[in-house]
Amino acid sequence: MNRWTSPPPDRNLPATLIALAVFAVLAPGAVTGTARAETGNPPPVAPSVVPGAAPGAAPGSAQAGRTALPDLVARLLPSVVSITTVQGGGPAQHRKAPEGSPFEKYFKDYFEKRRNRQRGSAMGSGFIISADGYVVTNNHVIDKAAAVRVILDGGRQLDAKVIGRDPRADLAVLKIRPGSPLPYVRWGDSDTIRIGQDVVAIGNPFGLSQTVTTGILSARGRHLQNFGGIPGSSFVDFLQTDAAINKGNSGGPLFNRAGAVIGVNTAIYSRAEVNAGIAFAVPSNLAAPIVEQLRRYGRTRRGWLGVNIQPVDDELARSLGMESPTGALVANVVTGSPAAEGGIVSGDVILRFDGKPVPNASRLSQIVAAAPVGKSVTVSVLRGGKTVALTIVLGELEKAMEAGAVQDTPAEEIRPDLFPEFGLRLGKITPELAERYKTATREGVIVLGVEPKGDADRKGVAPGDVIVEMEQTAVATPEAVRKLVDEAKEARKTSALLLIQRGEDRRFVVLRFRLQQEQ
Question: The whole model's pTM is what?
Answer without folding.
Answer: 0.63
